[in-house]
Structures are given as structure tokens and as C-alpha cells.
Q: What sequence folds into this?
């Protein structure tokens, strides 16, 4: 055990009020009306793809985020897939995504037949770096008849999908400008950022479409689930239509006017969501409080910094993050080993996507910052109630 790893273990132990033998990274909490609402589904028989909880959950999501419309679907990955399709991404296109994200961001691009094009992140947000993207696009792209093309591959670049890493908003205003100047559609992967605000406005308000996830480890959960957010009511109606097998409304006839998907969120999952979202303000208060305690505890350790929200943002602190200072990368695996050996679940960031076998030949820019973050980043326990 190195001194540093031991210090990290002691520091985290001192912050946590829980003394359970195993402390998970992020566990769900059901302290509200989850049981009552789910029982109501069982008692009435409305468990599947229609029911009042789906409508109520969608309304609550729209209200909370300030986006006009929310469409609930079975998970965040298919929300991304639908959002990309609705944005007009076609086979043979390229879509800009950070290499530092969960694999779903790139998989959804691949499902449409397009290719992910990997870009770098910035240290201050952990998310896509708008300045570096602009310089890069000036270099490798050209606009022809209002459409952006990659000069090196000849392919159309259609969209940009930033991701708000661990709930910390990317620098959305400059990114929005870059997208406008290069005729690119902005789609926010806000799977981790429900409850996170950028300059006072909820994430998900900058994209033409945005995406949430309610997987078991997210800030609120429906067991499995996701949503598409959009201010464009035509796109919202299309999202609902495509996610319900593109079925034309009729009392008894089954007619479909295009190839749709069975992506709608079941009512029983939405019931969980309705109860969870009632507690979201409490969850966020607790999580921000835990982050504050971590932050002051790590202040005295010079080899490590606790990652704090960007100045222009108010984050949900979905997953708390520590970063080894440059020059201490070699300590990462020892720290991970010691924490996990002692019942404190900790993990490194996702393997950068451009290194995965299915994406290793995709186009990419210089990825220096993402590589550095991958080598230094550790997630530590973040559940409500610690
Ligand atoms: C969780 C997550 C998703 C979607 O996940 P699902 O498990 O399909 O709901 C997408 N992108 C990111 C960045 C995520 O963290």
C-alpha cells in the first residue's frame, strides 16, 4: 500500500457517515411514493405502454427541465438513437462525439449507420472542448451548400453530441456557436445531468434534441428508462410516433406508416419515475452536500484534486470524481485496488471510445486532454445518504 493510496482511503472514510461493509458507487433510493404508484399500476392492470403515469412523468420532466416536450422511452441508449434519427442523421454520415463518454453515445451513432468522429475534452468541464473543436473543424471541414463535409473522408458531418460528464455541464454557449457556424445539429447527451444547470438554465435546453437516462445507477431511476427532450413540437410528435411502432391512431385497426420502434416506456416504469422525480430536489441537495464534504477533505492532499463544478454551472454531482495531479498517474491503479479491497467501490473513467475494437478506425482529432483525464480520473461513492 502506498502512502497516497492509504491517505485517499482514510480521507474517504472520514467523509462517509456510512460504515457498511460495502459502499457502492451509486445506489438508488426509494423513500417516496414508489410502492404506492407501482401498486396502483398492478391494481388497475395498467402496467404496459399506455397509462396515466407515462403522461404524468413526461409532463413532470418537461416542467422540471424547462424544455417544452419530453417523450419517455425504454432507455437512454434508444433515446439517443431516436434523437439522432429525428435530427436527420443518415447512413454514411459522421457525428462528432467526445472519446471520453459512455459507450452508448457512440453506439447510438453506429445504429443509424453513421460513423462516430471522436473529439477531445477540456479539463475544466471534463466534456467536449468547443474551442478545440472549432479550430479542428476550420482545418478539416468545408461548408458546401449549407452542409458541412469532412474534407479528408468526403463524408457529411451532420451532428455534434456533447455529453455532460458525471453531471457537469459542458460549455454550452460557445459550443452552440460552433454548431451554428458549421451547420451542425446539436444533440445533448444529458443522460447524467438531470438536475444540472448551465448559466441558470437546465441542461438539455441547447440541443435541438436532448436525451436523459433513468437507468438504475442514474440520479433518478425507473428501473430502466430514458427520455427525449425537445422544444420542437413537430419533432416531439415524431418521436412519440416512431417510439410507438409508427402506429396510426385507430380504435381497432393496425396501420403503420413507416418503420417504427417499440421504444415506449411502460407505465409501471413511469410510475417509479413519478415517485422518484418528486424526490429529485432532495437527492440533489444531498449530493451537493456530499460533494462539498469531499471537496474540503481533499483540499489538503496536494497529489489529488476533487473535481468541482465549472464556474458557470450548478451540477447534480451525479458521480463524484477525484483527479490525480499530473505526474501521479502511476498511483491510479493502486488507489483503485486499495479502495475496492476495503469495501469502497471506486472505478476509473470509461476506456476512451476510440480505443475500443469496433471504433478504433473511426476518424478522430488529437485527444491529448481526454487521454490525460483517463489516466488520472477516479470515481468515488456518490449515493444519496452517505
Ligand atoms: C447512462 C448513459 C446513457 C444511456 O444509458 P441507458 O442505460 O441506455 O439508459 C447514455 N449516455 C451516457 C453518457 C450515459 O451515462
A:
Amino acid at each position: 500500500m502506498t502512502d497516497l493510496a492509504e491517505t485517499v482511503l482514510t480521507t474517504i472514510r472520514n467523509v462517509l457517515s456510512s460504515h457498511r461493509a460495502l459502499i457502492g458507487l451509486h445506489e438508488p433510493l426509494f423513500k417516496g411514493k414508489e410502492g404506492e404508484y407501482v401498486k396502483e399500476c398492478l391494481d388497475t392492470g395498467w402496467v404496459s405502454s399506455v397509462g396515466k403515469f407515462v403522461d404524468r412523468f413526461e409532463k413532470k420532466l418537461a416542467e422540471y427541465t424547462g424544455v417544452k416536450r419530453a417523450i419517455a422511452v425504454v432507455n437512454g441508449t434508444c433515446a439517443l438513437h431516436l434523437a439522432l434519427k429525428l435530427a436527420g442523421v443518415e447512413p454514411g454520415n459522421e457525428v462528432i462525439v467526445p472519446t471520453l463518454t459512455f459507450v452508448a453515445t457512440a453506439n447510438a451513432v453506429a445504429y443509424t449507420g453513421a460513423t462516430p468522429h471522436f473529439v477531445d475534452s477540456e479539463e475544466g468541464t471534463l466534456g467536449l472542448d468547443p474551442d478545440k473543436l472549432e479550430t479542428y473543424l476550420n482545418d478539416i471541414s468545408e461548408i458546401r451548400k449549407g452542409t458541412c463535409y469532412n474534407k479528408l473522408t468526403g463524408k457529411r458531418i451532420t451532428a455534434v453530441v456533447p455529453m455532460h460528464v458525471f453531471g457537469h455541464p459542458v460549455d454550452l454557449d460557445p459550443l452552440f456557436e460552433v454548431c451554428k457556424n458549421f451547420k451542425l445539429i446539436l444533440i445533448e447527451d444529458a443522460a447524467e445531468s438531470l438536475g444540472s444547470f448551465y448559466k441558470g438554465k437546465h441542461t438539455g435546453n441547447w440541443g435541438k434534441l436532448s436525451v436523459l437516462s433513468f437507468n438504475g445507477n442514474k440520479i433518478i431511476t425507473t428501473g430502466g428508462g430514458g427520455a427525449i427532450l425537445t422544444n420542437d413540437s413537430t419533432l416531439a410528435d415524431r418521436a412519440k410516433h416512431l417510439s410507438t411502432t409508427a402506429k396510426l391512431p385507430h380504435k381497432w385497426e393496425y396501420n403503420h406508416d413507416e418503420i417504427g420502434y417499440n421504444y415506449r416506456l411502460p407505465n409501471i416504469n413511469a410510475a417509479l419515475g413519478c415517485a422518484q422525480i418528486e424526490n429529485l430536489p432532495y437527492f440533489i441537495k444531498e449530493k451537493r452536500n456530499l460533494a462539498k464534504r469531499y471537496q474540503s477533505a481533499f483540499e489538503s492532499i496536494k497529489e489529488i484534486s476533487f473535481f468541482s463544478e465549472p464556474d458557470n454551472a450548478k451540477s447534480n454531482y451525479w458521480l463524484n470524481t477525484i483527479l490525480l495531479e499530473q505526474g501521479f498517474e502511476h498511483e491510479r491503479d493502486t488507489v483503485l485496488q486499495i479502495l475496492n479491497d476495503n469495501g469502497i467501490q471506486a472505478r476509473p473513467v470509461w476506456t476512451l471510445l476510440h480505443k475500443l475494437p469496433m471504433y478504433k478506425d473511426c476518424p478522430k482529432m488529437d485527444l491529448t486532454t481526454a487521454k490525460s483525464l483517463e489516466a488520472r480520473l477516479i470515481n468515488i461513492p456518490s449515493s444519496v445518504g452517505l
